[in-house]
Design brief:
The chain has 304 residues and is mainly alpha-helical. It is 72% helix and 1% strand. It is built from 13 helices and two strands; from the N terminus they run H-E-E-H-H-H-H-H-H-H-H-H-H-H-H. It has helices at 2-45, 61-69, 71-102, 109-122, 126-135, 141-148, 164-174, 177-187, 192-200, 205-233, 237-243, 254-263, 268-292; strands spanning 47-48, 56-57. It has a two-stranded antiparallel sheet with strand order 1-2.
């Protein structure tokens, strides 16, 4: 046994070296583009730094300032929480609904799946945000249609503090393609024999959905939920291009406010502190989901 291990050792070392060589580009990119900037950001978050002077260490002063002396911080946090609260369930529900419609054996389904996925590819672009702004602007399609049916509004949807955020949320729901594809893949993994047994027993469609489809999809729902919450908290382009945070900061997303502090007011130290507060918020939500998954996520093989 010792001789065999001795003979295999050089091959194992060669395999390990090959593996590390293959990982080198990724490791280099991770250290250079993520790990080092992360450490620098942590340091700047503890300093008073405005890009024009030398950073001066102030400890947790930026964090205290955010929670005790910055009302705009709370407004941006409120807007982002409302956005996530409405966006995530609506996008996931719509994605699941479309996935179930496409989970059929009909001609042209491949084309429909591609068409439904396109908004997720181009939805976060500047161009689409500009188009969305024109649709809901003063002279946009939405206002024109309302006027045509006799509903006259002086203020556009984007100029009203009560509806502007709704337009941003609607655009986010429209970008449901990635979640839809994940749900569609999961639906195809559910054994058809389960549905056949339920139909033989006379189960109604709603019972089949709630007792078979939904429980079997809970791992996928869990995965999608984490992704969508993270993406929701990171919303920026839509808020920046469509409304620039207005009117009256009603669509001021957290990341947009963080961007303003850094590149409008050059308050880089404070902006870095805001970034780490956002990381902590996302981390808390992620931990809560992982801690509670045992009560609602059903794995086929069970969990250890």
């Amino acid at each position: 046994m010792k001789k065999k291990n001795t003979k295999k050792a050089p091959y194992k070392r060669a395999d390990n070296i090959a593996g590390y060589l293959m990982l080198t580009p990724w490791l280099f990119g991770f250290v250079l583009m993520w790990f080092i900037p992360m450490l620098i950001s942590i340091y700047y978050s503890l300093t008073d730094f405005n890009l024009l002077n030398t950073p001066s260490f102030i400890g947790i002063g930026n964090y205290i300032r955010a929670f005790t002396g910055d009302q705009t911080f709370w407004q941006a946090l409120k807007v982002t929480f409302v956005y996530v609260l409405f966006l995530v369930p609506l996008r996931m529900a719509f994605a699941l609904f479309v996935a179930m419609l496409l989970n059929k054996n009909h001609k042209g389904l491949g084309l429909y799946r591609t068409l439904y996925y396109i908004p997720s590819i181009i939805g976060g672009s500047i161009a689409v945000s500009v188009v969305w702004k024109q649709i809901f602007g003063n002279q946009g399609v939405a206002m024109t249609l309302l006027n045509a049916i006799g509903i006259h509004q002086k203020t556009s949807f984007l100029g009203n503090v009560h509806t502007a955020l709704g337009v941003i949320i609607l655009m986010g729901v429209w970008q449901f393609g990635s979640s839809m594809l994940i749900f569609l893949s999961a639906l195809k993994q559910i054994p058809h024999s389960l549905y056949e047994s339920a139909m033989v027993d006379g189960a109604k469609p709603w019972k089949i959905f709630t007792r078979i489809t939904l429980p079997m999809l809970t791992p996928t729902i869990f995965f999608n939920l984490i992704l969508q919450i993270i993406n929701g908290f990171r919303v920026f382009t839509e808020s920046y291009v469509i409304t620039d945070g207005g009117p009256l900061d009603s669509t001021l997303s957290y990341v947009l406010y963080m961007y303003r502090r850094a590149f409008t007011y050059f308050d880089m130290g404070y902006s870095c502190a805001l970034a780490w507060i956002l990381v902590a918020i996302i981390g808390v939500f992620t931990v809560i989901l992982f801690k509670t998954q045992g009560s609602w996520v059903h794995y086929e093989a069970g969990r250890e």
